[in-house]
Design goal:
Layout lengths: L9 H10 L4 H12 L7 H16 L10 E4 L6 H10 L3 E4 L7 H5 L5 E4 L11 E3 L5 E4 L5 H4 L16 E4 L7 H16 L3 E4 L12 E4 L10 E9 L5 E8 L4 H24 L12 H4 L13
Parallel strand pairs: 1-2, 1-3, 6-7, 6-8
Antiparallel strand pairs: 3-5, 4-5, 4-9, 8-10, 9-10
């Protein structure tokens, strides 16, 4: 089995398992060398769990995530319940070693997702969802968040229908590359019918927006849900990301917004860069050239 099986998104890995092109044993075999000391689960235990997952799939009893390896931090809040829900969904449980939060396992391609206590350690490198209640979730791709969200479904409210009231920071963001990334995302979401408000326009708003868009450094309160979405790299080749923050129960809305950004902004730029002969960094489209076309008069600051 190709080694790049480990580097594929969980969605792609699951498709291979469902079609029979790969097995859970193949997946663990390909990724076992990347697990190393970051996991407290013996390799033999992982292979045995993978074989059980394959046997359940052959018998038609596989769970919706049957065979995907998922890491769980040792200090995860409500860990026993989360692991039980994950096992019911068919995942192969990978215990993170003491002091490890699963980020290293995910970035190394050793696991398909990781449930962690604190998503800030992801540092904008991978999508990171932190519900208002329950554990944080790290995945390799934005589309994978939907796969693993049902594991903590009891903490998530039903989705809202219709457009969202979204507040975006602008002039208060000192770093111009992050400011442009937020502006790009705000302009894109406005094209999808969402109301965008500039929170730095000097006005007092009567009601709080459903969702806030800003930079990862602005940490939300623990009573809020947050999702960090990687959008490229800056001039120093450091991860460039935006943070969506919302009131409790809007996790599905946050994922929906992230999928729009990933599909309409991040992926097209990556595809364009990958087609170039010269190596180029995957950065967002420069906001100042593109966003202004979609803003009304700058004086009213309504995006």
């Amino acid at each position: 089995m190709p080694q790049d099986l480990c580097d594929r998104s969980a969605t792609e890995q699951l498709k291979l398992l469902l079609t029979g092109e790969s097995t859970a044993a193949d997946l663990i075999s390909a990724c076992a060398g990347r697990i190393g000391p970051a996991s407290a689960t013996p390799a033999g235990g992982l292979f045995e769990a993978a074989r059980r997952a394959d046997n359940r799939r052959a018998a038609g009893e596989a769970g919706p995530l049957g065979g995907l390896p998922v890491a769980f931090a040792a200090d995860l809040p409500g860990r026993a319940g989360v692991v039980a829900a994950a096992e019911a969904a068919g995942v192969v449980v990978v215990d993170s070693a003491a002091g490890e939060d699963g980020v290293r396992l995910l970035v190394a391609g050793a696991v398909s997702a990781a449930f962690v206590r604190d998503t800030s350690s992801a540092d904008g490198v991978v999508p990171a969802l932190r519900p208002a209640h329950g554990p944080g979730l790290l995945t390799r791709a934005v589309e994978d968040l939907v796969l693993f969200l049902p594991i903590i479904e009891s903490e998530v409210s039903p989705s809202l229908v219709g457009s969202l009231d979204i507040g975006a920071h602008s002039d208060s963001i000192a770093d111009i590359e992050f400011r442009d990334a937020v502006a790009d995302v705000a302009a894109l979401l406005s094209l999808h019918g969402h109301l965008i408000r500039d929170l730095d326009a000097g006005r007092s708003w009567q009601r709080r927006p459903d969702v806030l868009v800003s930079v990862p450094e602005e940490s939300p309160q623990w009573t809020e849900s947050a999702l960090i979405v990687p959008v490229g790299t800056n001039r120093d080749d450091r991860a460039l990301a935006v943070r969506f923050t919302a009131r409790p129960g809007l996790e599905r809305e946050l994922i929906g917004l992230a999928r729009l950004v990933d599909a309409d902004l991040v992926r097209p730029v990556r595809a364009a860069l990958s087609s170039c002969q010269a190596p180029l960094r995957a950065a967002p489209i420069p906001a100042r050239r593109r966003v202004r076309r979609y803003r009304p008069d700058r004086s009213d600051r309504a995006w």
